[in-house]
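Give me the 3D structure for Helix-turn-helix domain-containing protein.
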Amino acid sequence: MSPPPPPEGKDAISTSINEALLSYRMQEGLSAAQVAQAAGISELRYTMLESSRGWPGSRALSAVLDALNIPKDQRSCFAFPGTPLSDGERALLHQKPYPALVVDHTWRVVDCNRFFADQLPECAAPGSSLLRWVLLQEEARHRLANWEDAAAAYATALRDALTADPDAPELQSLRAGLPSGLWETACPDAGQPDGQCLVWRTAQGPYVIWECVLMVPASRPDPLTVDFIPQTLTRRSTPEPTAALQQPASTGDEALLAGIARCGACNLNLTTNVDHYQCPDNCVTIGMELLESRVAQALIDRVFTAESLRKLHLAQEILLAEGGEIHQPFPVSPRHARHQWDHDLPAEIQRAFVTHSVERVLVTTETDGEPSTTISWKE
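Predicted structure for Helix-turn-helix domain-containing protein (379 residues):
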């Protein structure tokens, strides 16, 4: 018995390996616990596989496919373990304009782009372990100003990987070499590498340059893509990376919110000068950077949801697999989307996003004198 054909139209992009497993299981009328028992693995290991939260290893996958009664001639979509990256996956990795790599489920490097190789050459060779470097190498303690937080998060990643595949020799070796105190910090409260910023020591002092973003490729759940998105940190004693330079504020009719921002008291369109939006009747004044930042963040939160980001990531894989070119990688997280908004999007593209989504922005002065904003969205 084969799963239902993938949906057509706008939802066709949502089909993935974990959804195929769920479809087979539903057709067999089995619970996750029943599949796990038949496959001889824990229910947690199976649910991690079905939800793309962990890879249980090829042997466990084969047992799951047997438990789901999937005929041998219908397993081609599950034949990915141990295979090289596809041309599309490699193209996507090497087109990213920031440090990025692909690791297997034990965090050993499969491939990396030149930006990662330049930043961390000791972890760039295939078979090197980013997890081992962070947790066990003395150099990591010197390079990372927030090593304790990073180590706790990567220890949690090790615990999760061991939960998914407790028989993996590389993971067992890492666990055996891990100090007991560090292993005890490995818990959900310690966070995960995903979303964590790494604070690097420089001659001028520590500053954040990387935020880690983890993604499971939709086409195969056995590796992880690890992106290190450049971040900025405003500190008096901290040098600001070149990427942090902001675009100059627009003025007049070119302002991002011209014709959209209105006074909440009299409903007049706010006028603009070099750095402010202001009511013609002087009801309210607000800094241009502040108001535009608020609207940008609200827009990004509304547009770049977890589901839309997942679909964008899969669309990117499909485009590259078909030989297409992508000059600007799609965002992989809301923070990444905001970074692209601040540093990469031309003003005319920002304006197009706003005019397409925002009906009006009302600015009102509160009793404490601070301006508040209310955004009305287009349907």
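Residues 87-242 form a domain with the Beta-Lactamase fold (CATH 3.30.450.180). Let me know if you want a second pass.
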